[in-house]
User: What shape does this take?
Amino acid sequence: MKLNRTLIISVFIVASCGLAYELILAALASYLLGDSILQFSSIIGLYLFSMGIGAHLSKYVKDEDTLARFIEIELLVGIIGGISALALFVAFGFSAAPFRTLLYAFVLIVGTIVGMEIPLVMRVLNEQKADFKELVAKVLSFDYLGALAVSLLFPLVFAPKLGMARSALLFGLLNAAVAALTARMFKGRLKNYRALQTRAAIMLLVLAAAFLYADRITFQAEQRYFGDPIVYESHSPYQRLVVTRWKDDTRLYLNGNLQFSSRDEVRYHEALVLPVMQMGKRENVLILGGGDGLAAREVLKYADVERVTLVDLDPDMTAAFRTSAALSALNQGALSHPKMTVVNDDAAKWLENHHDKFDVIIIDLPDPSNFSLGKLYSVPMYRLVARHLKPQGRITVQSTSPYFAPNAYWSVVATLEAAGLHTAPYHVYVPSFGEWGFVLAAAENHFPVPQSYDVETKFLNAETTAAMFHFPPDMARRDVEPNYLNNQILVSYFERDWNSVIR
Assistant: This one.
């Protein structure tokens, strides 16, 4: 009975580890490759398919070898699954091409090995003369319970506290520990007990050493990928944040994608904020996104602004740009300003639960590269935003590049118009990004182009502002569809546009 209990507990740990590797590989792919829906869907599909292969292969294990093979498989999945995320970080530092190949190889191999675990442990339990009905019920119950436990702990504890590489290594250690414990409990039935225990001890030492040095290894890998020295990094349930600095150039990367360079971000943020602030009342301002505080910095230049509410999903982002001396210097302490209220929440949920109205709404969200972001660029979202606009109030939206992603850009314009708003598209050249697009929107078709500004500017004046509202023929409006939740056409436009220009 004691041996059966040990195996049942092993099932709980094995199930937790199996799902953990699946989640880690999918999350890592979405961090580094983007498009989280596609990455999670393809990796989970391949992983489940691989588990089916493993379950099928388990029938070729002889009955007299099931226990030894189960222990060997635990050691194998522990070392391969454990080092998977670390190896992928290193691979991505060299090139995205072998990274993809290695990613799917790990998914296939780990999934196949994991698929053999439960059939083998059920056969071992069956050899203990356990009642078949009770056996199946217990194994599957603990299997599903383990999956539930890790699915809850992964986004709340493991991903934000340990990161991908150390989380995978922790679960690798658990697999190896299960192997060592099972071998010890069943040593009387194992001909090669000493060899298995020696291998388990070696695996535990290797995985423990890798766990201790994982952050240093991933740091070096990311250093190679980003090029410039990394001065800040953090994981959160939502994204990986990396800040680099070379001389006077500080850069922010979210999931490997450049968000700004301090050398030219003023062009982007003045263009995003100052025209809409100059066009009318501005006492009460809402910023959706913009957790770096740079848009807020521009807003707070206006002395007549009474209140600024910034809603950003990621508390790690706002905390970093509020508490770090180097990062808060970029936004001039905007996130700690007495007029500022910072809220960490999903923009759409916050808008649904609050009824405040604003003179200016600035939408500075990440590009619509996946469906979870695409919903924030949809007709229902813009209708929701419009309900929070005061009469004569105006909205401005960062809207990707009208040059590199013209279909996506003009789809944002069409989406705002489908939501019942008038629009005034404009663009600016930002050296780090190229031509970048924005859209002004309001209930009334009145967008007086500023001839001057009430605050100090580094880039905008009458001439540069006038030029922003003129589009050359190669960026002219296109006949594209608005973005609704049921089709998310904007995400498709975005992917096709950028895939055609990224090498």
